[in-house]
Amino acid sequence: MTNYDSGNHSVSRSFTLLVSAMLWALLASANAQDYPAVSSAMKKLIPTASDIAIADTPINGLLEVTVGGDIFYVNESGEYLLQGKLFDLDKREDLTERARGKIRKQVLSQVNGDSQIVFAGDRIEHDVTVFTDIDCGYCRKLHSEIEEYNKLGIAIHYMMFPRAGIPSDSYDKAVSVWCAEDQHAALTSAKQGATPKPRQCDNPVREQYETGRDMGMSGTPAIVTKSGYLIPGYMPPADLKARLDQLAAAE
């Protein structure tokens, strides 16, 4: 069972210009002009899609089509579409997750570290970005063990993702935490169930929420490694350390 809280709200799939531009750079092995039938079919399927990135796959005649955070597989004539995960059985690799990971990595590389609330110890072996919701149960469980994560060399870079959307009580709490004089203390207090003192200031909460949404996030906590790999849900400190070590060794 995945320790992952999903929101009860529906989130619209709008995509930022930044993400679209990155897709073109990341998936430039082919483009929509090389496969006009595929481009035309996808535009009919998703009329709001402004940019469509098309790349080859290891399967002859099957193309990987990326629109925002969504990945589809379409044949070269644009007649058939599959949506799901593509695996390389010999390498035991999820090729779809690898493609999504490239997008996440590039998007997060553009995030200013000063716009994150970071909990780190003296020794850092792994940096992970955690999309969090103030009111999420498993997010609170994760934060209750923050010292243990840090002792194991895991630095947690928090980005706010109020699942109830904007506006919402969770969004207001996230803004209040960000605007507090001591963000770390305010976040810890809020994670323990206290309502933060209402505050307003220039803050990145909306931008962080939209970044998570554009990357396809729908639940919290969502842990993203520096390589863009997504670990959905809460994972105990020792288990997360083992998983991060395994992923690092495989790179």
Strand-residue proportion: 15-25%
Q: What would you call the structural class?
A: alpha+beta
General shape:
globular
User: Which sheet architecture does the biggest sheet show?
Assistant: 5 strands, mixed
What's the domain count?
A: 2
Q: What is the chain-wise order of helices and strands?
A: EHHEEEEEEHEEHHEHHHEEEH
Helix share bin: 25-40%
User: Within the CATH hierarchy, at the fold level, what is the topology of the largest domain?
Assistant: Glutaredoxin
Q: Order the strands across the largest sheet as they lie in space.
A: 8-10-9-12-13
Number of helices: 9
Specify Rg, calculated over alpha carbons: 19 Å
Average of pLDDT: 87
Number of strands: 13
- Unreliable runs, pLDDT <50, ≥5 residues? 8-30
- CATH domain class name of the largest domain: Alpha Beta
Spatial gap, N to C terminus: 27 Å
Secondary-structure arrangement, i.e. CATH architecture of the largest domain? 3-Layer(aba) Sandwich
CATH superfamily of the largest domain: Glutaredoxin
Give a brief description:
This protein is an alpha+beta fold. The chain has helices at residues 17-26, 36-45, 95-109, 137-144, 146-151, 169-179, 183-191, 205-214, 237-250; strands at residues 5-6, 53-56, 62-67, 70-75, 81-82, 87-88, 93-94, 117-119, 126-132, 154-160, 219-220, 222-225, 230-232. It has two domains: 17-109, Nuclear Transport Factor 2, Chain: A, CATH 3.10.450; 115-250, Glutaredoxin.
